[in-house]
Amino acid sequence: MALSDVLYAAYGRRLAKGLGPESIPRHVGVMLDGNRRWARARGAGTSEGHQAGADNIANLLGWCEEVGVEVVTLWLLSTDNLNRPESELRPLLGIIERAVDTLADEGRWRLHVVGALTLLPAVTRERLEAAAARTAGVDGMLVNVAVGYGGRREIADAVRSLLLEHADLGTTIEELAEILDVEHIAEHLYTKGQPDPDLVIRTSGEQRLGGFLLWQSAHSEFYFCEAYWPDFRKVDFLRALRAFGERHRRFGS
């Protein structure tokens, strides 16, 4: 083992030892950013970067499981990314399909696919849904796999679902306007019934949400990491938890 690996392992143990209960979020959202830039920096192809990123997902879930996180949301593909050239999009979808299958085969986590699934190719949608169905009985950490996901689209879909529900009940627009509140919309989000994310991590140095969990992250804490996603290590994750535990959460006040 290289000296740097020994030092990082020791540092990681020290970080983990210093984490108290206040450092452990119930729900962590992760923006897995930087795969393409990681590939370019190494003179590799885009698909190699996406594959390297996919290969790091199980590590992250293991770290979350180890400290007691209950829910993880992984943003794997945005609605904007669906507009990428077919020559890039098809290989990326294949990597995502295989990655989600691999996570399901682990049998450790309960997968839930979120996003505008009707925008995905039928073969991708069916494969992701089948993988999630295989984990329905797993009594483990809940993992939201966000594919074809956009925060604005989610809110629009929630409002659409709400309107259709009340149309079926015979509620008029005027009656709905009288009673409508934030909880009505929350009940129709892709993540309905789940706790909102306490901590949102974005890798690659970018410091913006980009549409990730727009509604749910109103009171979230954010942690921005310089490492590209394929290089994200356990010590980076533990640093994020340490930073989270040191913050005084105001919940919008």
Which labels suit this protein?
alpha/beta; 10 helices; six-stranded parallel sheet; 253 residues; 13% strand; Undecaprenyl pyrophosphate synthetase
Notes on the structure:
The protein has 253 residues and is an alpha/beta fold. It has one domain: Decaprenyl diphosphate synthase-like (Undecaprenyl pyrophosphate synthetase), CATH 3.40.1180. It has 10 helices and 6 strands; from the N terminus they run αβαααβαβαβαααββα. The chain has helices spanning 3-17, 35-41, 46-55, 57-67, 86-106, 122-134, 151-169, 173-179, 182-186, 234-246; strands at residues 27-31, 71-78, 110-114, 142-149, 199-202, 221-224. Strands 3-4-2-1-5-6 form a 6-stranded parallel β-sheet, with helices on both faces. Keywords: Magnesium, Metal-binding, Transferase. Mg(2+) binds at residues 33, 221. This is Isoprenyl transferase.
